[in-house]
Known about the structure:
Elements (H helix, E strand, L loop, with lengths): L8 E3 L8 H7 L10 H17 L4 E5 L3 H10 L7 E6 L3 H11 L6 E3 L8 H10 L5 E7 L11 H10 L5 E5 L18 E5 L11 E5 L1 H7 L10 H4 L15 H18 L1 H23 L4 E3 L11 E6 L3 H11 L3 E5 L14 E5 L6 H17 L8 H10 L5
Parallel strand pairs: 1-11, 3-4, 3-5, 5-6, 6-7
Antiparallel strand pairs: 2-8, 7-8, 9-10, 10-12, 11-12
Amino acid sequence: MSLNFGRTQLAIPGPSVIPDRVLNAMHRPSPNIYHGELVDMVDTIFPDLRTVAQTKHKVAIYIANGHGAWEAALANTLNRGDKILVITTGRFGAGWGEVARSMGLETPILDFGMDADADPQKLEEVLKADTNGDLKAVLTVQVDTASTVRNDIAALRTAIDNANHDALFMVDCIASLACDRYLMDEWGVDVTVAGCQKGLMTPAGMSFVYFNDKAETFRQNTSPSFYWDWQPRTNDEIFYQKFAGTAPTHHLYGLRTALDMLVHEEGIENVWTRHETIARAVWASIDGWGINGAMRHNIRDPKKRSNAVSAINTGPEIAGKIRKWCEEEGGLTLGIGLGLAEMGTPEWDQHFRIGHMGHQNPTMTMAVLGCIESALLAHNIDHGDGGLSAAARILARPASQ
Protein backbone atom coordinates (compact mmCIF):
# COMPACT_ATOMS: atom_id res chain seq x y z
CA MET A 1 0.00 0.00 0.00
CA SER A 2 1.25 3.47 -0.90
CA LEU A 3 0.25 6.88 0.41
CA ASN A 4 1.40 8.54 -2.80
CA PHE A 5 -1.95 9.90 -3.94
CA GLY A 6 -2.93 13.55 -4.22
CA ARG A 7 -0.83 16.43 -5.45
CA THR A 8 2.87 15.71 -5.91
CA GLN A 9 5.54 18.31 -5.25
CA LEU A 10 8.86 19.24 -6.84
CA ALA A 11 11.68 20.20 -4.54
CA ILE A 12 14.40 20.27 -7.19
CA PRO A 13 16.45 23.38 -8.01
CA GLY A 14 14.40 24.18 -11.10
CA PRO A 15 12.08 23.94 -12.81
CA SER A 16 10.47 25.19 -9.64
CA VAL A 17 6.86 25.00 -8.50
CA ILE A 18 4.64 27.00 -10.87
CA PRO A 19 1.91 29.07 -9.17
CA ASP A 20 -1.64 28.28 -10.20
CA ARG A 21 -2.04 31.94 -11.16
CA VAL A 22 0.80 31.63 -13.66
CA LEU A 23 -0.68 28.44 -15.13
CA ASN A 24 -4.11 30.07 -15.39
CA ALA A 25 -2.64 33.12 -17.13
CA MET A 26 -1.14 30.83 -19.76
CA HIS A 27 -4.34 28.84 -20.28
CA ARG A 28 -5.84 30.98 -23.04
CA PRO A 29 -6.14 31.17 -26.83
CA SER A 30 -3.25 32.47 -28.89
CA PRO A 31 -3.28 36.28 -29.13
CA ASN A 32 -2.77 38.68 -32.01
CA ILE A 33 1.02 38.85 -32.39
CA TYR A 34 1.08 42.02 -34.50
CA HIS A 35 -0.54 44.69 -32.31
CA GLY A 36 -2.78 45.20 -29.35
CA GLU A 37 -2.84 43.46 -25.97
CA LEU A 38 0.24 41.26 -26.32
CA VAL A 39 2.47 44.02 -27.67
CA ASP A 40 1.34 46.42 -24.95
CA MET A 41 1.84 43.80 -22.23
CA VAL A 42 5.38 42.92 -23.31
CA ASP A 43 6.40 46.55 -22.95
CA THR A 44 5.54 46.28 -19.23
CA ILE A 45 7.72 43.22 -18.69
CA PHE A 46 11.11 44.81 -19.34
CA PRO A 47 10.98 47.38 -16.48
CA ASP A 48 10.03 44.66 -14.03
CA LEU A 49 12.82 42.37 -15.23
CA ARG A 50 15.20 45.27 -14.57
CA THR A 51 13.78 45.65 -11.06
CA VAL A 52 14.38 41.98 -10.30
CA ALA A 53 18.07 42.33 -11.26
CA GLN A 54 18.35 45.85 -9.81
CA THR A 55 19.63 47.44 -12.99
CA LYS A 56 18.78 50.41 -15.18
CA HIS A 57 20.34 48.77 -18.23
CA LYS A 58 18.92 46.76 -21.11
CA VAL A 59 17.65 43.19 -21.05
CA ALA A 60 17.06 40.86 -24.01
CA ILE A 61 14.62 37.94 -23.89
CA TYR A 62 15.49 34.68 -25.66
CA ILE A 63 13.32 31.64 -26.41
CA ALA A 64 15.93 29.36 -24.87
CA ASN A 65 17.06 27.71 -21.67
CA GLY A 66 20.04 28.90 -19.64
CA HIS A 67 22.51 27.39 -22.10
CA GLY A 68 21.05 29.68 -24.74
CA ALA A 69 21.63 32.68 -22.49
CA TRP A 70 25.22 31.58 -21.96
CA GLU A 71 25.78 31.48 -25.71
CA ALA A 72 24.01 34.78 -26.32
CA ALA A 73 26.12 36.57 -23.73
CA LEU A 74 29.33 35.26 -25.29
CA ALA A 75 28.26 35.80 -28.90
CA ASN A 76 27.54 39.48 -28.33
CA THR A 77 30.76 40.34 -26.53
CA LEU A 78 33.60 38.08 -27.69
CA ASN A 79 35.24 36.73 -30.83
CA ARG A 80 36.74 33.35 -31.69
CA GLY A 81 40.27 33.18 -30.29
CA ASP A 82 39.59 35.55 -27.39
CA LYS A 83 40.77 34.41 -23.98
CA ILE A 84 38.45 34.52 -20.97
CA LEU A 85 38.84 33.48 -17.34
CA VAL A 86 36.21 31.00 -16.13
CA ILE A 87 35.71 30.81 -12.36
CA THR A 88 34.26 27.46 -11.31
CA THR A 89 32.69 26.68 -7.93
CA GLY A 90 30.72 23.63 -8.99
CA ARG A 91 29.23 22.27 -12.20
CA PHE A 92 27.66 25.27 -13.90
CA GLY A 93 30.57 27.67 -14.13
CA ALA A 94 32.38 24.81 -15.84
CA GLY A 95 29.39 24.33 -18.12
CA TRP A 96 29.52 27.93 -19.26
CA GLY A 97 33.20 27.41 -19.99
CA GLU A 98 32.35 24.37 -22.13
CA VAL A 99 29.97 26.48 -24.21
CA ALA A 100 32.70 29.11 -24.59
CA ARG A 101 35.21 26.52 -25.83
CA SER A 102 32.70 25.25 -28.38
CA MET A 103 32.60 28.81 -29.73
CA GLY A 104 36.37 28.93 -30.20
CA LEU A 105 37.26 30.85 -27.04
CA GLU A 106 40.27 30.07 -24.87
CA THR A 107 39.14 29.33 -21.33
CA PRO A 108 41.74 29.12 -18.59
CA ILE A 109 40.00 27.91 -15.42
CA LEU A 110 40.19 29.22 -11.85
CA ASP A 111 38.72 26.22 -10.04
CA PHE A 112 37.62 26.30 -6.39
CA GLY A 113 36.11 22.82 -6.30
CA MET A 114 32.66 21.63 -5.28
CA ASP A 115 32.50 22.89 -1.70
CA ALA A 116 34.01 26.39 -1.64
CA ASP A 117 33.24 29.85 -2.96
CA ALA A 118 35.49 31.88 -5.25
CA ASP A 119 38.41 33.60 -3.54
CA PRO A 120 38.60 37.27 -4.64
CA GLN A 121 42.28 37.47 -3.68
CA LYS A 122 43.19 34.66 -6.07
CA LEU A 123 41.17 36.34 -8.83
CA GLU A 124 43.04 39.59 -8.21
CA GLU A 125 46.39 37.78 -8.44
CA VAL A 126 45.48 36.16 -11.76
CA LEU A 127 44.34 39.45 -13.25
CA LYS A 128 47.42 41.36 -12.04
CA ALA A 129 49.57 38.72 -13.73
CA ASP A 130 47.72 39.36 -17.02
CA THR A 131 49.88 42.38 -17.81
CA ASN A 132 49.06 42.33 -21.52
CA GLY A 133 45.31 42.37 -20.96
CA ASP A 134 44.82 39.07 -22.79
CA LEU A 135 41.81 38.13 -20.68
CA LYS A 136 38.78 39.77 -22.23
CA ALA A 137 36.19 38.62 -19.70
CA VAL A 138 35.72 37.01 -16.30
CA LEU A 139 32.84 34.52 -16.04
CA THR A 140 31.31 33.23 -12.83
CA VAL A 141 28.03 32.17 -11.29
CA GLN A 142 26.37 33.84 -8.33
CA VAL A 143 24.97 30.48 -7.20
CA ASP A 144 26.15 27.17 -8.56
CA THR A 145 23.08 24.93 -8.61
CA ALA A 146 25.19 21.80 -8.12
CA SER A 147 27.42 22.75 -5.19
CA THR A 148 24.84 25.34 -3.93
CA VAL A 149 27.59 27.78 -2.99
CA ARG A 150 26.87 31.50 -3.29
CA ASN A 151 29.75 33.62 -4.53
CA ASP A 152 30.37 37.14 -3.29
CA ILE A 153 29.85 39.03 -6.53
CA ALA A 154 30.62 42.44 -5.05
CA ALA A 155 33.95 41.17 -3.70
CA LEU A 156 34.88 39.66 -7.07
CA ARG A 157 34.14 43.02 -8.71
CA THR A 158 36.42 44.70 -6.21
CA ALA A 159 39.16 42.22 -7.07
CA ILE A 160 38.84 43.12 -10.75
CA ASP A 161 39.01 46.81 -9.90
CA ASN A 162 41.99 46.33 -7.56
CA ALA A 163 43.83 44.62 -10.41
CA ASN A 164 43.00 47.60 -12.62
CA HIS A 165 41.82 45.15 -15.26
CA ASP A 166 39.39 45.97 -18.06
CA ALA A 167 37.86 42.49 -18.42
CA LEU A 168 34.13 42.28 -18.87
CA PHE A 169 32.49 40.90 -15.71
CA MET A 170 29.80 38.34 -16.60
CA VAL A 171 27.61 36.62 -13.98
CA ASP A 172 25.23 33.67 -14.26
CA CYS A 173 22.18 34.24 -12.03
CA ILE A 174 20.11 31.39 -13.44
CA ALA A 175 19.70 29.71 -10.03
CA SER A 176 19.62 32.85 -7.93
CA LEU A 177 17.64 35.63 -9.62
CA ALA A 178 14.61 36.54 -7.49
CA CYS A 179 15.90 34.23 -4.73
CA ASP A 180 19.24 35.60 -3.50
CA ARG A 181 19.91 39.31 -3.23
CA TYR A 182 21.43 40.54 -6.49
CA LEU A 183 22.38 44.14 -7.31
CA MET A 184 23.70 44.19 -10.86
CA ASP A 185 24.52 47.89 -11.12
CA GLU A 186 25.69 48.45 -7.55
CA TRP A 187 27.99 45.42 -7.74
CA GLY A 188 29.44 46.47 -11.10
CA VAL A 189 28.33 43.51 -13.22
CA ASP A 190 28.52 44.10 -16.97
CA VAL A 191 26.49 41.11 -18.21
CA THR A 192 23.95 39.01 -16.29
CA VAL A 193 22.30 35.84 -17.58
CA ALA A 194 19.18 34.27 -16.08
CA GLY A 195 16.29 31.93 -16.81
CA CYS A 196 12.55 31.96 -16.20
CA GLN A 197 12.08 28.53 -14.61
CA LYS A 198 13.52 29.03 -11.15
CA GLY A 199 12.98 32.16 -9.05
CA LEU A 200 10.75 33.65 -11.75
CA MET A 201 8.27 30.76 -11.40
CA THR A 202 7.49 30.33 -15.12
CA PRO A 203 7.74 27.10 -17.17
CA ALA A 204 11.18 26.55 -18.69
CA GLY A 205 11.66 28.05 -22.13
CA MET A 206 12.81 31.67 -21.77
CA SER A 207 16.13 33.15 -20.74
CA PHE A 208 17.41 36.69 -20.25
CA VAL A 209 20.64 38.56 -20.88
CA TYR A 210 21.14 41.90 -19.15
CA PHE A 211 23.97 44.13 -20.38
CA ASN A 212 25.35 47.56 -19.56
CA ASP A 213 27.03 50.25 -21.65
CA LYS A 214 30.46 48.64 -21.39
CA ALA A 215 29.08 45.38 -22.76
CA GLU A 216 27.45 47.29 -25.63
CA THR A 217 30.89 48.67 -26.48
CA PHE A 218 32.21 45.12 -26.71
CA ARG A 219 29.23 44.26 -28.93
CA GLN A 220 30.43 46.78 -31.54
CA ASN A 221 33.49 44.60 -32.23
CA THR A 222 31.61 41.32 -32.68
CA SER A 223 29.36 39.76 -35.30
CA PRO A 224 26.76 37.63 -33.51
CA SER A 225 24.42 35.52 -35.60
CA PHE A 226 20.95 36.74 -36.49
CA TYR A 227 19.26 34.82 -33.69
CA TRP A 228 21.63 35.59 -30.81
CA ASP A 229 22.14 39.28 -31.60
CA TRP A 230 20.81 41.26 -28.66
CA GLN A 231 20.67 44.59 -30.47
CA PRO A 232 17.38 44.06 -32.37
CA ARG A 233 15.86 42.43 -29.28
CA THR A 234 16.18 45.68 -27.36
CA ASN A 235 14.75 47.79 -30.19
CA ASP A 236 11.59 49.43 -28.87
CA GLU A 237 10.18 50.14 -32.33
CA ILE A 238 9.82 46.70 -33.99
CA PHE A 239 8.01 44.11 -31.87
CA TYR A 240 8.83 40.90 -33.72
CA GLN A 241 12.57 41.64 -33.55
CA LYS A 242 12.42 41.38 -29.77
CA PHE A 243 12.17 37.61 -30.28
CA ALA A 244 13.78 37.18 -33.72
CA GLY A 245 10.35 36.14 -34.95
CA THR A 246 7.20 34.91 -33.25
CA ALA A 247 7.02 35.77 -29.56
CA PRO A 248 6.73 33.01 -26.91
CA THR A 249 3.20 34.23 -26.30
CA HIS A 250 1.97 32.02 -23.50
CA HIS A 251 5.25 32.09 -21.63
CA LEU A 252 5.02 35.87 -21.69
CA TYR A 253 1.55 35.81 -20.15
CA GLY A 254 2.87 33.54 -17.44
CA LEU A 255 5.90 35.72 -16.84
CA ARG A 256 3.74 38.83 -16.63
CA THR A 257 1.73 37.24 -13.82
CA ALA A 258 4.85 35.98 -12.04
CA LEU A 259 6.34 39.49 -12.12
CA ASP A 260 3.08 40.90 -10.79
CA MET A 261 3.39 38.56 -7.83
CA LEU A 262 7.10 39.18 -7.20
CA VAL A 263 7.56 42.86 -8.00
CA HIS A 264 4.21 44.55 -7.50
CA GLU A 265 2.56 42.47 -4.78
CA GLU A 266 5.35 41.06 -2.62
CA GLY A 267 8.20 43.40 -3.53
CA ILE A 268 11.69 42.21 -4.38
CA GLU A 269 13.14 43.01 -0.94
CA ASN A 270 10.45 40.86 0.67
CA VAL A 271 11.05 38.12 -1.90
CA TRP A 272 14.71 37.99 -0.83
CA THR A 273 13.75 37.95 2.85
CA ARG A 274 11.21 35.15 2.33
CA HIS A 275 13.82 33.02 0.60
CA GLU A 276 16.31 33.70 3.38
CA THR A 277 13.80 32.61 6.02
CA ILE A 278 12.79 29.43 4.22
CA ALA A 279 16.44 28.56 3.56
CA ARG A 280 17.28 28.94 7.24
CA ALA A 281 14.37 26.64 8.11
CA VAL A 282 15.70 23.97 5.75
CA TRP A 283 19.21 24.35 7.15
CA ALA A 284 17.91 24.06 10.71
CA SER A 285 16.31 20.71 9.90
CA ILE A 286 19.49 19.39 8.29
CA ASP A 287 21.49 20.53 11.32
CA GLY A 288 19.01 18.82 13.64
CA TRP A 289 19.00 15.52 11.75
CA GLY A 290 22.79 15.60 11.44
CA ILE A 291 23.45 15.68 15.19
CA ASN A 292 23.22 11.90 15.53
CA GLY A 293 23.34 10.95 11.87
CA ALA A 294 25.49 10.98 8.79
CA MET A 295 24.02 14.10 7.18
CA ARG A 296 25.67 17.47 6.59
CA HIS A 297 25.60 20.53 4.37
CA ASN A 298 27.87 20.52 1.33
CA ILE A 299 28.59 24.18 2.06
CA ARG A 300 29.53 24.37 5.73
CA ASP A 301 29.42 28.16 6.17
CA PRO A 302 25.78 29.41 6.19
CA LYS A 303 26.93 32.81 4.92
CA LYS A 304 28.16 31.14 1.73
CA ARG A 305 25.06 29.04 1.04
CA SER A 306 22.42 29.86 -1.51
CA ASN A 307 18.94 30.80 -0.34
CA ALA A 308 17.54 28.97 -3.37
CA VAL A 309 18.92 25.43 -3.07
CA SER A 310 20.78 23.27 -0.57
CA ALA A 311 23.10 20.34 -1.31
CA ILE A 312 23.21 17.65 1.37
CA ASN A 313 25.87 14.97 1.83
CA THR A 314 25.12 11.73 3.68
CA GLY A 315 26.65 8.40 4.59
CA PRO A 316 26.66 5.47 2.15
CA GLU A 317 23.30 4.78 0.44
CA ILE A 318 21.38 7.17 2.71
CA ALA A 319 20.66 9.91 0.18
CA GLY A 320 19.59 7.34 -2.40
CA LYS A 321 17.15 5.78 0.04
CA ILE A 322 15.75 9.20 0.97
CA ARG A 323 15.26 10.26 -2.65
CA LYS A 324 13.66 6.96 -3.61
CA TRP A 325 11.26 6.82 -0.64
CA CYS A 326 10.23 10.46 -1.03
CA GLU A 327 9.42 10.04 -4.72
CA GLU A 328 7.76 6.63 -4.65
CA GLU A 329 5.97 6.81 -1.32
CA GLY A 330 5.71 10.49 -0.53
CA GLY A 331 5.01 12.13 -3.88
CA LEU A 332 8.04 14.39 -3.46
CA THR A 333 10.86 14.75 -6.00
CA LEU A 334 14.19 15.83 -4.53
CA GLY A 335 17.20 16.96 -6.51
CA ILE A 336 19.98 14.56 -7.43
CA GLY A 337 23.58 15.18 -6.38
CA LEU A 338 24.52 16.72 -9.71
CA GLY A 339 28.27 17.15 -10.01
CA LEU A 340 28.88 15.77 -6.52
CA ALA A 341 29.30 12.18 -7.73
CA GLU A 342 29.13 10.15 -10.93
CA MET A 343 25.82 8.45 -11.66
CA GLY A 344 26.08 4.70 -11.17
CA THR A 345 28.83 4.89 -8.58
CA PRO A 346 28.27 4.10 -4.88
CA GLU A 347 28.92 7.77 -4.09
CA TRP A 348 25.89 8.77 -6.19
CA ASP A 349 23.63 7.67 -3.34
CA GLN A 350 25.39 9.91 -0.84
CA HIS A 351 24.06 13.24 -2.11
CA PHE A 352 20.76 15.01 -2.65
CA ARG A 353 19.59 18.57 -3.08
CA ILE A 354 16.54 20.46 -1.84
CA GLY A 355 15.23 23.24 -4.06
CA HIS A 356 13.53 25.98 -2.01
CA MET A 357 13.20 28.61 -4.71
CA GLY A 358 10.35 30.59 -6.18
CA HIS A 359 6.78 29.79 -5.16
CA GLN A 360 7.39 28.66 -1.57
CA ASN A 361 5.64 29.12 1.76
CA PRO A 362 5.80 27.46 5.22
CA THR A 363 3.23 24.79 4.30
CA MET A 364 5.25 23.68 1.28
CA THR A 365 8.53 23.85 3.19
CA MET A 366 7.30 21.80 6.13
CA ALA A 367 5.79 19.25 3.72
CA VAL A 368 9.18 18.71 2.09
CA LEU A 369 10.98 18.45 5.41
CA GLY A 370 8.31 16.19 6.89
CA CYS A 371 8.56 13.82 3.95
CA ILE A 372 12.34 13.64 4.33
CA GLU A 373 11.99 12.84 8.04
CA SER A 374 9.43 10.14 7.18
CA ALA A 375 11.98 8.62 4.81
CA LEU A 376 14.56 8.61 7.58
CA LEU A 377 12.13 6.83 9.87
CA ALA A 378 10.96 4.40 7.19
CA HIS A 379 14.53 3.22 6.66
CA ASN A 380 15.55 3.35 10.34
CA ILE A 381 18.30 5.81 9.44
CA ASP A 382 20.00 7.29 12.49
CA HIS A 383 19.26 10.99 12.83
CA GLY A 384 18.91 13.63 15.47
CA ASP A 385 15.54 14.57 16.90
CA GLY A 386 14.04 18.00 16.50
CA GLY A 387 14.69 18.68 12.83
CA LEU A 388 11.11 19.62 12.07
CA SER A 389 10.61 21.66 15.24
CA ALA A 390 13.84 23.57 14.50
CA ALA A 391 12.45 24.51 11.07
CA ALA A 392 9.10 25.51 12.58
CA ARG A 393 10.81 27.86 15.04
CA ILE A 394 12.61 29.60 12.16
CA LEU A 395 9.38 30.00 10.19
CA ALA A 396 7.63 31.37 13.29
CA ARG A 397 10.16 34.21 13.47
CA PRO A 398 10.84 35.48 9.92
CA ALA A 399 14.14 37.24 9.23
CA SER A 400 12.35 40.59 8.97
CA GLN A 401 11.19 40.45 12.60
